[in-house]
């Protein structure tokens, strides 16, 4: 599924970087290496973020709709909610924050003024927004933070009724995406339904509800996934992926001309 | 507007703290000291957060619906988006993070297992969620993060049509709240309409849109407020406040019995 | 005992802050939330510092003797010597240091050039002095560090003979102050005499002696207080409080015109 | 040139990670994104490290000579010597150190006991060794640090006589490697000879000499590369690459059975 | 003036360290490398602290009055008040704090339970006390902080009337000490009287007064010293030194048997 | 063995520092306080580094071959590989790094442009090189890192055949040096042969081999030394010392005139 003719930042020489057009959008995928239950590889968030970002950048480049370059994605990010499990490689909050800030600082020297994070891991969202402001304040870059798809616990929709809207990790959508992108790595036969039904007792606190709560994934049981992957299909994954790519391509276009006044 | 008979953590002696009932919810208001334009005091977020938290704690205590104590609020928080202005006293992201984590660590020694942040300042939301997870992971507390009202740029509603849904700082609602809570400190005659209309040109990036962006308040102009306070009224503020108190009292009740399985 | 007409920094708007007169002294009370034995609330240091600072600022403002504003006090400070006890909420040394430095940095943007800490907790004294120099060096503010009353272990007098000069925490003076300021929160009937008589065997090392020593409050026994509160009275507390207020008002006056050459 | 059947850590599920055989060697490539003169892409060190590590892991896996998995490489590392140039994205020393330590900490939870860094960027060598010891001490992992090829300034040989033994960045060998691995990204026509001949005046201080010195790449001129790429060939690059792969495969074998007593 | 038969920690082998008697007092001199005006070497505080500590340890060892070892002194400490001047080598507050804490942590492994800082530089006093508590809390060592002589601005006496009690840096006493200890390095002919007479106008704020202030030494003028060294003599220095040694020897004795209950 | 007429930085006054000639080389010895087995004092690395540096500076000063000053050495450095043993006082990696950077920052204010570390402890080498680059980048100093003798595990030779080239800590050479410099502190009768013969089984990983590994000294056994000191002699030590001094004197000369273009 690897795209050719994707404009990659690291394929350039230093003088070529210096010659990038004004308002070029640098796109940085944020993945994760973290347990995703017995049915999905630990690369899941990394794969979805990098594949979607790459495809979106390819679309924009092909259409010439905005100047854009793809940065190497970050595989290791903030997966502290899965710290307890084999397979999780997690950076502490300050390590990831310093990483993002260092990247922003460096891009300033490269003349890049617009930085778009494409995030595949819900656990990065909060810190990523902190980083966006820090980079804006200190280095002047316009910064943007896009989710591959908005996580359910952050206001996004799309979780199935079987999931009671709580397919936040390794559930229907994520499993479908991986059935589309990496079918050989999905072990659907090992998956069941793991929906924290107790959460439905609360009106105000919970995933996608007004009050968030601090959780680690073992709060919900020993299996580490939250959702119902049993009905996932590659077709649904393909649809989700194509929607995400289309939306991200549009985001890149907006990011290139975004202004606040 | 100060409540009597509010159960305050700091009114207790050490042995009284040790004897608090299981599942007592400790409520920590998060304010801000930051510029709010020419018409609102820099205390705005601190006042609204502490007044609402105090009133909600009083309601719960009066009703006996859950064990609860009120912690001293934090006046100085993460106002880096207003760093450029007189009146703003801001902690850097790591200072605030360490403060919240230190509080969580200390509460563990006090036998407190449930900590609810009541936040009056949108700029604290992202970092507060990072802290909730960190405190959960390291000290085992159940942590909750509630907004006084969900900020517009974080999915909340309620901004007026005049504001195009962008009354994020010093606008209609916040000004109304202060006309209700501290009318003598509001200078409505100095306020105009400051709505970043350019943002309406973008579908995907913006306040309350799927893609967030890193901003400081001087990105929108020299006046530092974003919204249209001109039609604010104390009556509207009273309504908002009472809704917030009622909702927060219910949140406290849920927090006391919240479980994930 | 809350004063009206106290000039509070946070009651101002940003333009009002910018218009403060030159040499305005910003007064920042430093309290603590920490165990004070079975007879005093954990708010003791916070109450005494904030009440005295507020009263002193009110005196200066009423007399017009110097330009002055009161900042919101810090409730959570460096109480690591009481880390072992329920009721103590303590910041680590670097968290508090960064907090104080961040405040100093912010005040520079507000045009404030003089910052006076009014400290109610002996455990803050050393770090507070480190912060005073750091803020002076980096941001150019003139900084001052005043104790509500000079702690016994830092050269202050006033501990009773029953205390052998060692009433450093929850003893005669502090209990008297709270009997004056918050009588309803004092449980004098639970207090005894807790004086570390062994310390009298040492001439050079000890509270108020030339050589200081590193201690935590459980070094002296399980009760957490050090002194003899049994004879404390509200009258004595009133006297101490009024002396402190008078002295602090004079300090503010000096701080406004202080110069080194 | 991408290998199939490479055992990749992130292709596994969490239970599969937990079931990895004892003494599995986890291989972590360390690249860089940094200016490499006008003739080489900024990906050079990342490409060479990841390609060689992947090929070596594939050899070992094919031969079954040792249990091994490949971790996602780090593209952004410590390139502070090229901080001044567009195209360089550099982490500060403490950001990279914390990243490496966080990875080591996480691998402990995964049951991994052997970690091999394969480094393509000389600027990572010193810090990488600090990390190896820190991870050993704190988490008990056996850690190893291998260079793709030992850098000239760290005792390695192979720089051409035209380079006076100083082809440390973008010179004959590195350019040859990239002509082999990514010929379409090499702009040999833009390269000249950039050898710091002045260094030959010193016997004791210099690249590959007993005394090292602190340098940034602009110390040697504005072009940012140090060496003589003009005679580089794909054939020489192929030879270097194959030697590196063979050597790394042997290193992996040793790492799997390494013991100190 | 170097003592023979001083028991030095670093002269021991590891097994000898492990065999030190219980309650051995480890003595750590804290000096400074900082400008001391045109008449004194930048080593002044380091020389006085290390010479006095060494002599006191020698006395105690000779008398057998307590088990004691001398640690290597720290030359570079917290001289941020002299940051502006050539000759000053200063550690930031957190660097010094971490150094002291690391030493305390290490001594715990050596079985040392009593650590005495002998401080020759007033600028270390506050942070040293913070470190004493931190080491006590985290590693259980009994920690003590002694001044060579109590600095004037911290309650010590002995400054001459010509100095108005403000001979805090490079004045009568310090110059006399160096005339005794290192006469060949004193340039008395270059010294004048540098007393900040303006400070006498303030009753509450100042050196040795109840309220401390944050200062750097260039606040008082360009010469960097504060006091009146013109009348300094070696005889007076000898007297001061001998008093300090006698007092420190007694402190070591107390430190070896110090207990809080 | 203490040299007279060594130009010591700390013997100077501040104005004398300011008047040092351009290109003066400041020499900073780096030692260690760490276990060295039962036969050598824990001062070993500190003694050898400071004695050699002092002697070399004396030679250069006597010959007038280059402007040079000797800085006070650091006794406490990065000995984390010996963290487990009594006698070791170790700074963590970041404490030492910040110390070195603070020194570099301070020397810039003194007008020093050339800084040479003379290192007696192999465990400092990697971090020292990181510091050299950081100081070069941030403060512009030319920095140099010289080993007293290049450690065996970093490419140096000279370990005896009995040691199989692995006399890295407390072995033949180090013991000989101490027999020359501090014979009264060497307990040769307690030493045996402690050579990790298992390491000889590995071709690529090991001391002085292409691939380094992370180790702590207890990885090799409980005695803490690695090598064969049994045949050490003062004569061999004298030879090594004189060679080191001669070489370091030449390094100082080169450092004073070193340039990169």
UniProtKB/TrEMBL annotation, chains A, B, C, D, E, F:
Q: Which InterPro entries match?
A: Creatininase-like_sf (IPR024087), Creatininase/forma_Hydrolase (IPR003785)
Give the source lineage, highest ranks first: Bacteria, Bacillati, Actinomycetota, Actinomycetes, Pseudonocardiales
Q: What is this protein called?
A: Creatininase family protein
Give the required cofactors: Zn(2+)
Protein family according to the UniProt entry: Belongs to the creatininase superfamily.
Using the record for this protein, list the coiled-coil segments as residue ranges, or answer none: none
Entry-linked SUPFAM superfamilies: Creatininase (SSF102215)
Does the keyword Transmembrane belong to this entry? Answer: no
Q: Which UniProt keywords apply?
A: Hydrolase, Metal-binding, Zinc
């Amino acid at each position: 599924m690897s795209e050719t003719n994707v404009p990659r930042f690291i394929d350039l020489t230093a003088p070529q970087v210096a010659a990038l057009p004004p308002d070029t959008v640098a796109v940085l995928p944020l993945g994760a290496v973290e347990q995703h239950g017995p049915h999905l590889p630990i690369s899941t968030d990394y794969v979805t973020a990098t594949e979607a970002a790459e495809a979106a950048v390819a679309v924009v480049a092909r259409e010439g709709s905005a100047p854009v370059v793809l940065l190497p994605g970050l595989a290791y990010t903030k997966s502290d909610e899965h710290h307890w499990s084999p397979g999780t490689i997690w950076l502490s909050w300050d390590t990831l924050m310093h990483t993002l800030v260092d990247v922003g600082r460096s891009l300033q020297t490269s003349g890049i003024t617009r930085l778009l994070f494409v995030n595949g891991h819900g656990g990065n969202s909060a810190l990523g927004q902190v980083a966006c402001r820090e980079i804006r304040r200190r280095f002047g870059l316009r910064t943007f933070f896009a989710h591959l798809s908005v996580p359910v616990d952050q206001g996004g929709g799309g979780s199935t009724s079987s999931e009671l809207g709580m397919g936040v990790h390794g559930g229907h959508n994520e499993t479908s995406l991986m059935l589309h992108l990496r079918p050989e790595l999905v072990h659907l036969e090992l998956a069941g339904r793991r929906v924290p039904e107790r959460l439905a007792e609360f009106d105000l606190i919970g995933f996608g509800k007004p009050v968030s709560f601090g959780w680690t994934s073992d709060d919900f049981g020993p299996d580490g996934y939250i959702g119902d992957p049993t009905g996932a299909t590659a077709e649904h994954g393909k649809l989700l992926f194509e929607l995400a790519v289309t939306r991200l391509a549009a985001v890149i276009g907006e990011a290139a001309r975004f202004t606040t006044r």
